[in-house]
Every structure is written in C-alpha cells, then in structure tokens.
Amino acid sequence: MLVYYSSATGNTHRFVSKTGLPAKRLGPQGDTETVEEPYVLVVPTYAGGDGSGAVPKPVIKFLNNPDNRALIRGVIASGNTNFGSTYGIAGDIISAKCKVPYLYRFELLGTAEDVNNVKQGLEEFWKRQN
Q1: Residue 61 and residue 119: Cα distance in Å, rounded?
Q2: What are the boundaries of each domain within the chain?
Q3: What pLDDT score does 9 carry?
Q4: Cα 60 to Cα 81, 89, 96, 119, 121, distances in angstroms
Q5: Nearest to residue 60, comparing CAs of 33, 35, 31, 91?
Q6: pLDDT digits (tens, 9 = 90+) for 102-116
Q7: Contact 8/44 with Cβ under 8 angstroms?
Q8: What is the predicted pLDDT for the residue at 49?
Q9: Helix runs in 56-111, H state only
Q10: N or C: which end of the chain has fewer CB within 10 A?
Q11: Angle at 23 between CA 108 and CA 66, to 5 degrees
C-alpha cells in the first residue's frame, strides 16, 4: 500500500493515481490518520534552497503516531531539481529518521518512466519484504 500527502497543486496525487496501486491520501491534519498495514510513504519536498521545512507538517504529525511509524517500510519523494542539493530532501530526512530505504525520487509530477519504475520497483520491494 502507498500512503501519500499531496498539496493543493496535486502533483503527488496525480503521480500516485497513475500507478494504479492501492493508496491512502493523508488529509491536512495528518495526526488524525492511521494505517493498519505496512506501507511505502510518498511525500513531496517543500524545501527551498536551505532545506528547511522540507517535510510537510501533516506528514510529520502522521509519523509522530508510533503505530503509523512502525508500519512504514520505505519512502519515495518528489521534488524540484531547480533547488539543487535539496531536490527530494524530504525523502532523505524521512529515510534517516525512520530507518527505512529511500526507494525513489521523481521531479514534480513525474514522467511515465517514473511511474513505471515505481510500479516495477515496488513489486520487487514487496516480494523481498515477505
């Protein structure tokens, strides 16, 4: 399962929808959301050039719930290459803090190749988890 957060721009939502995989969208409050099965988190990066504020607040609130945090198995992040070294940094932060692999990063709403890579990569990833 994918769990994702998408802002008003909807880039992450469109990307996740294109995968056709089972998914749960986090609402703006994050802390009220719960999951009951292992998942991969898909998260946009909100950082500018300095990297501050990279992980959206609803995602932080969601992961602050110990039950949700216990079920995360990996992270995928979107970003904007215009921000250089902070491109997709939300994935780096979550990967380090939750001790899960950073599986993939894509720019903005992703390409057809990104969607295919994620679908194939997740299929292999979940096989290795079982």
Answers
A1: 27
A2: 2-125
A3: 81
A4: 23, 14, 14, 25, 25
A5: 31
A6: 999 999 989 999 999
A7: no
A8: 64
A9: 57-63, 66-71, 89-98
A10: C
A11: 100
